[in-house]
Amino acid sequence: MSDNLSLKAFVVLMKASKSLQEQVKKDISNHGMKTSDFAVLEALYHKGKQTVREISEAVLINTGSITYVIDKLENKNYVERRHCSEDRRVVYIHITEEGKQIMDEIFPKHQKVIEQMFNGVNSEELQTTINVLKRVGQKPSNQ
């Protein structure tokens, strides 16, 4: 019985994830961006300077693809690369003032879209969802 519930929970989660991703993609494209561009900018906007590897891990995109995205964002003057003064092999990606301005404009609207997706779900239910998904996501795959 619990196996059937686990399978059902998995299917519902995957369908919900797909629906949420489609809504987010549509919202971001309404602002003239691709999801990967927005994800990189959002990571830098909220966390400050990061290495390519740190960005890659934060937004779950491989480092080869992230480099391409960063190149595009750099060409738009939204981000810039700066060498670390202590170790020249390390390059940090910084959001520029122009990048901050675009995110100051876009992010609050994007946040409202996400909040609307969870309209009708109360705070307690949201916290329970967060806790359950964290536990499920932390389990080793061989269990």
Automatic annotation (TrEMBL):
InterPro entries xrefs: ArsR-like_HTH, HTH_MarR-typ, MarR/SlyA-like, Transc_reg_Sar_Rot_HTH, WH-like_DNA-bd_sf, WH_DNA-bd_sf
Matches recorded under PROSITE patterns: HTH_MARR_2
The organism of origin for this protein: Ornithinibacillus halophilus
Record domain HTH marR-type: where: 6-138
Protein name: MarR family transcriptional regulator, 2-MHQ and catechol-resistance regulon repressor
PANTHER family: HTH-TYPE TRANSCRIPTIONAL REGULATOR MHQR, TRANSCRIPTIONAL REGULATOR, MARR FAMILY
Entry keyword set: DNA-binding, Transcription, Transcription regulation
Gene Ontology molecular function: DNA binding; DNA-binding transcription factor activity
Gene3D superfamilies tied to this protein: Winged helix-like DNA-binding domain superfamily/Winged helix DNA-binding domain
Pfam families, per the entry: Staph_reg_Sar_Rot (PF22381)
GO biological process: response to stress
Taxonomic placement: Bacteria, Bacillati, Bacillota, Bacilli, Bacillales
